[in-house]
Amino acid sequence: VQLQASGGGLVHTGGSLRLSCAASGFTFKNYAMTWVRQAPGKGREMVAISTLGDFTNYALSVKGRFTISRDNAKNTLELQMNQLKPEDTAVYYCMSTIEGTPYFGQGTQVTVSS
Fold it and tell me: What is the CA radius of gyration of the chain?
């Protein structure tokens, strides 16, 4: 299983970023995919999840600002992040639990300056 996240960077408050995650080594369309983040000194936090049947759910802190999407033909997961705030600063990971084992990508840094 490989999960490769990209697209992070430095933006000002109110800016936008689009994260991508390339997945391989498993049947992507059969598994829920999640974006999680970890801010400095804090634990990992679920940001958004895309399950089978196009069901999505979001952390309250990002609802209305972030949009998760997936392309099962290309084995990719994306996260469109708008109206970014300094508190969104974190390392963002794509992850999936496959046969009971959680797999995380290497993470991509998002920094939002005030």
Answer: 13
Q: Give dist(CA 43, CA 24) in Å, integer.
A: 26
Distance, CA of 92 to CA of 29 (rounded, Å) = 21
Q: CA quadruple 7, 89, 96, 29: dihedral positive or negative?
A: negative
Count CB-CB contacts under 10 A for residue 35.
27
Q: How far is CA 72 from CA 31, 54, 77, in A?
A: 10, 11, 8
β-pairing, 90-98 with 33-38? antiparallel
Would the pLDDT of 102 be above 90?
A: yes
Neighbours of 70 (CB within 10 A): 20
Residues linked to residue 111 through DSSP beta bridges, in sequence order: 10
**Structure-block tokens of residue 56:** 């999505």
What does the pLDDT look like over 35-86, one tens digit per residue? 999 999 999 999 999 998 889 999 999 999 999 999 999 999 999 999 999 9
